[in-house]
Amino acid sequence: MTKTIPQSAKVVIIGGGVAGCSVAYHLSKFGWNDIVLLERDQLTSGTTWHAAGLIGQLGSSATITKLRNYSLNLYKQLEKETGLSTGLKQNGSLTVATSTGRLQELKRQVTTAQLFNVEANEVSKDQIKSLYPLINTDDVIGGVHIPDDGQADPVGVTNVLAKAAKEQGANFIEHCSVKKILIQNKQIVGVETDQGKIDCEYIVLASGMWS
Ligand SMILES: Cc1cc2nc3c(=O)[nH]c(=O)nc-3n(C[C@H](O)[C@H](O)[C@H](O)COP(=O)(O)OP(=O)(O)OC[C@H]3O[C@@H](n4cnc5c(N)ncnc54)[C@H](O)[C@@H]3O)c2cc1C
């Protein structure tokens, strides 16, 4: 049964993929309790559904590494809190280099990762072969092994974030499509949906490639 839309909300989040659900979770966690998330179809029905779900902690910058490490720990914590599974499997990752420039870059990323308590180990060609015997190491000159990296189920991750957000008061409405963002005096004042209007102070545009 379709849920009735509210007449107003402080924040309207457009899109129920992993980004929209994560924003709903984090806003509600930080005390924003008048939030409505609108999804035109079902949660995860956009690109999130197709994602491979690789969870790698090594980022190209310190900020990305910190964010990825935060996400991994959040998924583990939310599994315990919600009782739902994110499908997380920490089976480790190997990143290999076939040039000295790339190896240098990986070494720099390892140093950054260690600053954020991410276990990241430089590995030799022989160690790579022993960790993953199927690999052809002819051109490989070295690499990095991160034991706690892995994979998760993107649908599971999104549902866990959504459940935790709902438990903190966020309102999720599926099968409700936003048709127009309403603006007055250069300010957002609401959204027009296929089920009526919602007045709001803020919108979060999390509609992915449909934005
Ligand atoms: C094959 C594949 C593999 C991938 N693998 C990885 C990976 O291993 N690791 C990784 O980090 N990323 C991966 N990605 C990328 C990742 O899937 C996306 O970056 C991520 O899912 C985007 O999430 P999102 O919430 O921004 O968008 P989406 O999941 O697309 O969510 C947008 C939502 O907005 C809704 N929407 C659109 N218009 C409206 C409207 N007018 N009103 C209401 N709702 C609306 C849509 O229905 C949709 O549900 C992969 C992507 C693909 C396709």
TrEMBL record:
Gene3D superfamilies with a match to the protein in the record: D-Amino Acid Oxidase, subunit A, domain 2, FAD/NAD(P)-binding domain
Q: Where is the signal peptide?
A: none
Report any Pfam family annotated for this entry: DAO
Q: Which GO terms describe its cellular component?
A: mitochondrion
Ranges for domain FAD dependent oxidoreductase: 10-211
Name of protein: FAD dependent oxidoreductase domain-containing protein
Organism annotation: marine metagenome
List the top taxonomic levels of the source: unclassified sequences, metagenomes, ecological metagenomes
